[in-house]
Amino acid sequence: MTELDATQEIPEVELRRDSTLRFVSNGAAMATANLLGRGLGYISIILMARRLAVPYMGAYALLYTASMLVELIANLGLDKLLMREIAGSSSAVGKGYFRAALPIRFAMATVSWAAAWGLLMRFFRHELPVSAATAGIFLAMIFPVIATRNCEAFLTAHEKLIPIAFSQFAERMLMFAAAMLLVTDKLSFGSMMCVAPLAALVRMIMIAVSTRKEWMPNEAPVHPNVRKLVREGLELFLTEVLALVYFRSDVFVMAKMRGLADTGIYQIAYKIFDVCLSLFAGFLQAAFPRMARNNTKEMLRTHLLTGSLLLSVPAIGVILLRHPILDVFHKQYVTGSTALVWLMLTVPLVYINSTLANATIVARRVRLLGAIALLLVVMNVSLDIALIPRWGINAAAFVTFFCEVFSTVVLAPLLLRTMTKVRDTA
């Protein structure tokens, strides 16, 4: 190596070190915010369940489920597409995609908000312990949320995840404070639900300020292909709907075939599984813009290997301590220990498949994801119906594990075959 080569290598090494530190700090910040936010949510639900009558908890679950569906529809699968285009293009093109997505999102938010509110009033108006106006105000949080998600996609593409973590945690803190006021009789149930859009607005303002700092006002945006964006967004939206059905269908099959007691035990095991999944959500988000810039087999294999090894640690820990962990809830939940083992074995597989799915989106093969998601839904529901009546919650957990193995075996070869080996440095 010549002296000139050595001097040129030093900045590159430092650049890689800084990039790695930024990736780790971003992922750690998101993981911490997710865990703390979920912890506050669990505490709120426990205290509310002890304080409120059952119909109020049912209304709480119904309204929040409706808000999740409204957000899913309003998003139209655009988050990952925006991150991909902003991260992999010039800043002018990225600004064009950012601006083009906003009116699409707000149009879908208006439609989904009106549809959800109308359906709630049509079927649950007399059951809901809140007024029609309160339900409408609660669901209206979709408008600041959808603007926030647009900004979050922009910040994520620029690898600025720490402001996202702070804003999400601030929103959850406000909702936790509202829940505490509720359980201490300082706030009514309806008033607490009306805090949700205010908390979403605070989150939006915090994110908007951070986005403004990254915005380049003197550069004119390039108008993107909106029709192509919408088409890909619809494809990804349908894939997300199928994924939702895939992950939650076993609960309905379990409730129908084994009863609510087994369903409750399975749900506790699944909640522990869900907490483990939240550990890598932030790192997946941090890794996505890097994939958009460097979509190679080398990058993908690094993420797959590193993430799988790291997630094996908490998964093995939960498996070894499954009995005392389940006993914390109640001794009857210890009967779900075998199901919990299967779910913990699934954790690294879910990470692998989520990473492969991100790489598939970057590779612009969204239809492949949709086809695999449809196949997984059919397989999951069919196996659940065939196995749950005899083996109960253990069958439900095993089917989840089996489907994730199948997804990895099918998706990985199809994706790796289309990717380049190393990044072109020319």
In words, what does this structure look like?
- This protein is 85% helix and 0% strand.
- It is built from 14 helices and no strands.
- Helix 9 crosses helix 14 and helix 10 packs parallel to helix 13 (337-362).
- The chain is globular, with a radius of gyration of 23 Å.
- It starts with a helix and ends in a 10-residue tail after the last helix.
- Residues 1-10 and 422-426 have low confidence and may be disordered.
Concise structural overview:
With 426 residues, the protein is mainly α. It contains 14 helices and no strands.
The counted number of beta strands is 0
Major sheet size, sense and barrel closure: none
Parts with pLDDT < 50 across at least 5 consecutive residues: 1-10, 422-426
Q: Using only CA atoms, what is the Rg?
A: 23 Å
- What amount of the residues lies in strands? under 5%
Break the fold down into its secondary structure elements and pairings:
Blueprint: H1 3-51, H2 54-75, H3 78-88, H4 91-124, H5 132-139, H6 142-157, H7 162-183, H8 189-214, H9 226-258, H10 260-293, H11 297-320, H12 322-329, H13 337-362, H14 366-416
Helix pairs in contact: 1-7, 1-10, 2-4, 2-6, 3-4, 3-6, 3-10, 4-5, 4-6, 5-8, 6-8, 7-8, 9-10, 9-14, 10-11, 10-13, 11-13, 13-14
Features:
426 residues, mainly alpha, disordered N terminus, disordered C terminus
